[in-house]
Structure formats: structure tokens, C-alpha cells
Write a structure and sequence with these properties.
Elements: E1 2-3, E2 6-7, H1 18-22, H2 25-34, E3 43-48, H3 64-70, E4 81-86, H4 102-126, H5 130-133, H6 137-149, H7 152-165, E5 173-182, E6 190-197, H8 205-211, E7 219-224, E8 227-228, H9 235-242, E9 249-255
Parallel strand pairs: 5-9
Antiparallel strand pairs: 1-2, 3-4, 5-6, 7-8, 7-9
Helix pairs in contact: 6-7
Length: about 260
């Protein structure tokens, strides 16, 4: 992480949304004390720090692991993110309380995006998001805490909560989010999100990428949760093994650059 020319290393769980992790007490302390990120701001911008040019800003709701997959970084590798605090920007939520600083707003927006994704995925697979929308505050807090902290015990509890949300008759689709990136500049990746049909038995990861418009003949590597995924992998089995806590399968396809 770098800000105003200063940098520091922090270890982040792969499953945590980037912005939500930055807002945790441990990360926030390091950023404010070591990098002098202000205590309040209207927005915090994060850009991939390591490509040719800084590209567009990274979405703070994107999981750390998906960002790492976009840069082809393994679990112990360093992934550089440049941060910039912005003031004077109109706030998206008019209900923002004056006492709620930028860190709190950023964490809240990441949480909102995560649960919206869970509702979207639940609707896609069950034709109803009722269970996701009526989740108890205790279960929602437990799931969010698990995602941000990334420890095994809380993640097991989150999985149980997710299983309860997804109970009922299942449709023959899997919710997929695809990032197609050329080179390692994840900030310039194209993004698509939709349910992928698995009604045809044996539907593969390559079939899904093709349906999303990816040129599979030019694919160099596909990563999901830090795992290399083959184009011939069964899509439904890959989903069951590597889906994120929000019930989406995130596929990062690295495609060979064209001259």
C-alpha cells in the first residue's frame, strides 16, 4: 500500500473486499500513522500500483484475492495498491451522518455491495432472494465479519449461514463474474456478471467464458480464489469448490495481448 510516496506492507485476507479491509482497525491504524492517510475524506481511491500507467481506479468492493488474481499474485506475493484520499466530492448517500468519517462510509458501502451481490446470486439460483433479504442481523453480521477477517472459524459459520440462505429448489445456473484482462493490469480489465447455464451436463469453464465473449483461444491462464482453473473444468463443480462467500464464482481470465 502506498500513499503520497510512502509505502507499507500489510497482510490482507483474500476474501475481504479491499475497501472493507482498509477500514479495519488494524489496517486503518497503519494507513493513518505510517502513510498519513487522513482520518476523514469524501472518497478513497485505490489504483493498481505496478502497471504501465495507473489505469482506472480499482473498485473498493472487489475482493483482495480477485485483485491478486488480476495481477497473477500468489498468496505470499506482494500486490501494490496506490491510495489517494479525495475531498470535495459529492457524497453518494445523502443520509451520511456528520459523525461518520470516510472510513466508516467506505466500509458501509462495501458491505452494501457484498449483500447486494448475495441477493443477486440467490435470486439467480433460487428464483427468489427472500431468504437473503430476511437474514437476521446476527447472521448478517457474522457473515460480514467472516468475510472481512478471513479466519477459518468465522468462515465456517458464514458458510453455514450461506447454505441456509440458499436452501430450496435450485435452478440449473451458477452466478459468475468474469474479469478479462490483458497483461497484468487488472485496473483495465473488462467485467461482466450474469448467471451461466449448467443445464447441459458437462458445461465447462471454457463454455462459460465463451458465453461472456472471451476469446478462449487467446486465454493464457484462468484464476479463481488463487487457484489455476482449466478451461475444461466442469463449471458446476468449479463453482461448488471455489465460489466466493457472496455465492458468485469469480473467474479472472488473462488473455494474450494483441499487437
Amino acid at each position: 500500500m502506498s500513499h503520497d510516496g510512502e509505502s507499507t506492507l500489510v497482510r490482507a485476507p483474500r476474501c475481504a473486499p479491499l475497501g472493507a479491509f482498509l477500514a479495519t482497525a488494524r489496517a486503518r491504524s497503519a494507513l493513518t500513522k505510517l502513510l498519513r492517510v487522513p482520518e476523514d475524506f469524501d472518497a478513497l481511491e485505490a489504483r493498481w500500483d505496478g502497471g504501465e500507467g495507473d489505469g482506472r481506479a480499482l473498485a473498493l468492493g472487489t475482493a483482495v484475492g480477485t485483485c491478486a488474481d488480476g495481477a497473477r499474485r500468489r498468496s505470499d506475493d506482494v500486490y501494490g495498491v496506490a491510495l489517494r484520499a479525495v475531498n470535495g466530492r459529492e457524497r453518494l448517500d445523502a443520509s451520511d451522518a456528520a459523525a461518520d468519517d470516510g472510513w466508516g462510509r467506505m466500509e458501509r458501502e462495501c458491505r452494501h455491495a457484498f449483500f447486494n451481490g448475495l441477493k443477486e446470486a440467490t435470486y439467480a439460483t433460487r428464483a427468489s432472494a427472500a431468504r437473503a433479504m430476511t437474514m437476521s442481523s446476527e447472521d448478517a453480521d457474522a457473515m460480514w465479519d467472516a468475510v472481512v477477517r478471513g479466519d477459518a472459524d468465522t468462515l465456517r459459520r458464514a458458510e453455514k449461514v450461506g447454505d441456509a440462505v440458499r436452501e430450496g429448489r435450485k435452478r440449473a445456473v451458477v452466478p459468475v463474474r468474469v474479469y478479462e484482462t490483458r497483461g497484468d493490469d487488472f485496473a483495465n480489465a473488462t467485467f461482466a456478471s450474469a448467471p451461466a447455464s449448467v443445464e447441459r451436463r458437462g458445461t465447462t469453464v471454457g463454455d462459460a467464458l465463451r458465453a461472456f465473449g472471451v476469446d478462449v483461444d487467446a486465454v493464457e491462464i484462468v484464476l479463481a480464489q488463487g487457484v489455476e482453473v482449466g478451461l475444461d473444468f466442469d463449471l458446476e463443480q468449479t463453482y461448488e469448490a471455489l465460489r466466493h462467500a457472496d455465492a458468485f464464482l469469480y473467474l479472472v481470465a488473462h488473455v494474450a495481448s494483441t499487437l
